[in-house]
Design a protein that fits this description.
Length: 973
């Protein structure tokens, strides 16, 4: 009988008992004994952990810990009262912290540490494998397992391969391990993977294929071709086929190895195409004709066509070009056509893409374009709204720019920003500059202010310069400082900056400043819930204005839309604009008025003598151009005789009537001239409202008509107001159907006055038009986010004024529209505006939008706000579901703020629902979702969850956090 050491309570245990004691205690139903055993302390901390380490059973300790944690989970589920539940919570917390800490211990080790401890005999291979498997980062685990595979014996290597195959990041681990295996050992990897299924076998073949001996490749290729899962089959064939004999690659195609799955088939052919025989290449071309057309398909077809006999190549190429022309997405269509040599058609497609989104397409197709197409491509680049994108696109086109297109290219360079992009473009163009363009290129180079940036361009153009160029005063003044620049160092610095910073947005304005929320804070809308619906709409508009950078994308679209021909070929202009352009005197008077007094409403008169205002009116009557928005003219109308009054009113009305929907959107002079909206208050003041309303109905432009009729609403008697408002809304709907540019520029602003007046039926008609506009795309409507934000603002307005039965539909419309918005800031602003006003029927749409937010913290904040709204409107069950969704967010314990959101809203849950979130079943629950979080991070997260813990187990449950943390810290300082 072994001697018992009184100082070591585990001394009497045999090796078998050490390995299986926990298992026997569980079978005997002695759960408390299991917890006491794992709680026993030794000289180094946890006594049971030390014993398992001494016996080389690290994996055994992990199994025992997992069993004890499941027992604690079961104890929690079975607890009859809060005191028993608190005890179980304390055990759960302790085991979760230990599990997380073991992973952190592994994270602090390096592969070199493992090698040294194995070489010294301090650690066994079993312990080293267990330590490697606990590392939280897949790349660290990969390096550790690779190190073990390189130093272990044959049996140890097979164990390492088994560990790699069972790892959650199996492809990464297997690839690293395979690099350290001897060539003759490589087949052992797929052999071991066979028993784990097709996915594991495909991963193993991908990992070993690059180093597998050629004699082994063909048998494994044959086995891979028998795989049933498309994705597994494609990955295995792509890895093996290029290393197999040419006949084997042909067999893959000819024997039906091509797949019905589009991406898998294209991936396979990308690997096989360069080595296929003519017969197999033709077979492959026939196969891909069953796939949807795309740029990737076109790229594969180009390689296959090179293997097809020349006499059969033309027909196949033409068939592929026809297929490419049917590609749905314009950018993909252009790329496919360019791949297939149809550069002219590709540029025609690129021209259909909105300028704000065209740059990436031109950059992508530039390497496939012929020099003859350079002028057309440069023209498209010149229309891009962003100077940064213009520079990138032009840089891609420089290889095809020749003497005939150089002048156009240099004109584009003039508008390229920042200066580094301009310097790169000039440097790329320098070797191709004809003599006649050297002077212009040199001027653009010398105009760059920064010496280092100028030096990059100057270094490229300097060898082309003559003494005449160097003799110019500007060259002598600005070139000497730039010639000493280390060009390679500057370019290297630019490359490093580009690789360490996010790609710049298309627009040039700074990123949005609202909401300014630190990453460790929960987003809480400013002013909380005190904002009413209209205030929330204004807040939404302000946030969108900031995000859209002063409407640059919208403005660029409007400029193009207003300068493009109408259906009859004439430009969007009329005789009234030309007549007004000739009247410099009145334009000068308008500017003078605005500088002197600023804009003024009818009720505010500028102090002036009666003689002065009469003289002002006489001047305008003589010119037959009466500006009724001029305060002095308005004052004169109060003192003149009836005939003069009538004449002035009608001349002012005639001037305002000549303005059409899109006149003068960007011309300061025209924006200051009177419109029908300006003259309505004047006619109302003089009792002639009916005249101006009739005139408004005759306006040609539908949105101008809606603006004028809306301006008359405050002056109408109540019985007439609804009828005129319905007319105005009908004009807005017409503007929507006609895609009036003014409607977009004014952001459908008349709806704010119309929505409170019209009935639900009319609002529903407007909502239908907004839904239609949300689905539209192309050159006839503004680019994505610009258009969608305007529609969301209008949909929020409809929701605010709709009846209870239709408000939900309008809310869902707005939230679904927001799902298409690319900007995270806009999506978040929409949720901020909509959530406190949502009816029950729109909560699901709000949750769908919340899930689109980028970070877990922001998703949690948005879902919590929706849950609060659900509780306010009596949808407690829905609120509970939303809080439960927060609990399922990944890495809850990695972000204390997210955990705090869940804790603060735990009161929205029933005790049963809260318990189900904490631990729905043994081995599941909140703590199991993030066991690798460091102890300190977990404690911070648990502090945020304190309200939930108090509901689960009372104040003692909160104290259990500190107790568990203290024990683990004492065992593993």
């Amino acid at each position: 009988m072994p001697r018992r050491d009184a100082s070591d309570p585990f001394a009497a245990l045999t090796p078998y008992e050490v390995r299986h004691l926990i298992e026997h205690l569980v079978r005997a139903g002695r759960r408390e004994a299991v917890h006491r055993l794992l709680a026993m302390e030794g000289p180094q901390g946890s006594g049971w952990y030390d014993l398992k380490q001494r016996t080389g059973d690290d994996r055994g300790y992990e199994r025992d810990l997992a069993v004890a944690w499941q027992l604690a989970d079961a104890q929690f589920r079975e607890a009859p009262d809060s005191s028993k539940r608190t005890i179980a919570i304390g055990l759960q917390l302790r085991y979760a912290m230990i599990t997380g800490l073991l992973g952190r211990v592994s994270d602090r080790l390096t592969p070199g540490d493992l090698r040294e401890r194995l070489a010294s005999g301090e650690w066994s291979m079993s312990r080293a494998r267990a330590t490697a498997a606990r590392a939280s980062d897949a790349t660290v685990r990969a390096r550790m397992f690779a190190e073990l595979a390189g130093v272990g014996e044959d049996g140890d290597v097979r164990e390492v391969i088994a560990d790699a195959l069972s790892d959650p990041s199996r492809p990464v681990i297997l690839a690293a391990v395979s690099q350290r295996l001897a060539p003759e050992t490589l087949p052992a990897v797929p052999e071991a993977a066979r028993a784990l299924g097709e996915e594991a076998l495909a991963d193993a073949l991908v990992a070993v294929a690059p180093r597998m001996p050629a004699t082994d490749v063909e048998p494994w290729l044959r086995e891979a071709m028998r795989l049933k899962r498309h994705d597994a089959l494609a990955r295995a064939l792509v890895a093996l086929a290029p290393r197999a004999p040419a006949a084997s690659a042909d067999d893959v195609v000819l024997e039906g190895g091509l797949l019905d799955d589009e991406q898998a088939a294209l991936g396979l052919l990308e690997a096989l195409a360069p080595g296929l025989s003519p017969v197999a290449a033709e077979r492959a071309l026939e196969a891909i004709r069953r796939l949807p057309p795309s740029a990737r398909r076109a790229s594969v077809a180009v390689v296959l066509l090179e293997a097809v006999p020349p006499d059969r190549r033309g027909g196949a190429l033409e068939a592929e070009r026809r297929a490419a022309g049917r590609t749905r997405a314009r950018d993909q269509r252009a790329a496919a056509l360019a791949e297939l040599g149809a550069g002219a058609q590709a540029l025609e497609v690129a021209a259909e893409i909105h300028p704000a989104e065209r740059g990436a397409t031109i950059t992508a197709i530039a390497p496939r374009l012929a020099a003859a197409l350079a002028p057309k491509a440069i023209q498209l680049v010149s229309e891009l709204p962003s100077p940064t994108v213009r520079g990138e696109a032009l840089l891609a086109l420089t290889p095809i720019v020749d003497a005939s297109s150089m002048l156009a290219a240099l004109k584009v360079v003039e508008g390229v920003r920042p200066a580094s992009a301009r310097a790169r473009a000039l440097a790329a163009l320098a070797p191709r500059l004809p003599e006649t363009r050297l002077a212009r290129a040199l001027r653009l180079t010398l105009d760059i202010r920064d010496v280092e940036t100028r030096g990059v361009a100057l270094a490229a153009i300097e060898p082309r310069l003559t003494d005449r160029h160097r003799a110019t005063p500007k060259y002598r003044r600005r070139a000497p400082g730039a010639t000493g620049v280390d060009v390679d160092a500057v370019l290297r610095g630019w490359s490093e900056a580009a690789s360490t910073s996010p790609a710049p947005p298309v627009r040039e304005a700074p990123p949005p400043v609202a909401p300014a929320v630190a990453d460790d804070q929960e987003y809480v809308p400013e002013d909380g819930d005190r904002l009413d619906g209209q205030a929330r709409r204004r807040r939404l508009i302000e946030r969108v204005r900031t995000e859209q950078a002063d409407y640059e994308a919208l403005r660029a679209w409007l400029v193009k839309a207003l300068s493009s021909p109408d259906r009859d070929g004439s430009l969007r202009r009329n005789d009234a604009r030309d007549a007004w352009a000739l009247s410099e005197r009145l334009a000068a008077s308008v500017r003078e008025r605005h500088q002197a007094t600023g804009p003024s409403s009818h009720g505010t008169r500028r102090t002036a003598s009666e003689a002065t205002v009469r003289r002002r009116l006489r001047e305008q009557l003589t010119a037959r151009l009466v500006d009724l928005s001029d305060p002095r003219v308005q004052a004169a109308l109060d003192v003149v005789d009836p005939i003069t009054l009538r004449t002035a009113l009608h001349l002012g009305l005639e001037l305002a009537e000549h303005r059409e929907d899109d006149d003068g959107l960007f011309d300061e002079r025209y924006t200051e001239t009177p419109t029908m909206v300006d003259v309505v208050p004047v006619f109302a003041h003089h009792g002639r409202l009916r005249e101006v309303v009739d005139a408004a109905r005759d306006l040609t432009g539908p949105y101008r008509r809606a603006e004028a009729l809306t301006a008359a609403l405050p002056y109408l008697a109540t019985p007439d107001r609804g009828e005129v408002a319905a007319e105005a809304l009908a004009s807005v709907i017409t503007a929507c159907r006609d895609l009036s540019p003014r409607m977009w520029w004014r952001r459908l602003d008349v709806l704010e006055a119309l929505a409170p007046v019209v009935d639900d039926h009319e609002l529903e008609a407007m909502a239908a038009e907004l839904r239609r506009l949300a689905r539209q795309s192309g050159p006839s409507v503004p680019p994505g986010d610009s258009r969608l934000a305007i529609l969301i603002e209008a949909q929020l307005l409809l929701m605010l004024h709709a009846g209870p039965r239709t408000a939900g539909r309008h809310a869902v419309d707005g939230l679904r529209t927001a799902l298409r918005v690319r900007s995270e800031a806009v999506r978040e602003a929409v949720l901020d505006a909509f959530t406190p006003l949502l009816p029950t029927t729109a909560l699901d749409a709000g949750a769908a939008l919340a899930r689109r937010l980028g970070s877990g913290r922001r998703q949690a904040s948005a879902l919590a706000a929706l849950a609060r709204r659900a509780a306010e409107i009596g949808a407690a069950a829905k609120g509970s579901e939303l809080i439960e969704e927060i609990a399922r967010l990944p890495d809850l314990f990695a972000d204390p703020t997210t955990a705090a959101v869940l804790g603060r809203h735990a009161t929205l849950l029933t005790p049963t629902a809260l318990a189900a979130i904490w631990c729905p079943a043994p081995g599941e629950g909140l703590l199991h979702g993030g066991p690798r979080a460091p102890r300190d991070e977990m404690v911070r997260a648990l502090d945020g969850l304190a309200p939930a813990l108090a509901l689960l187990g009372g104040p003692e449950a909160i104290l259990a956090v500190g107790d568990a943390s203290g024990v683990v810290a004492r065992w593993w300082p």
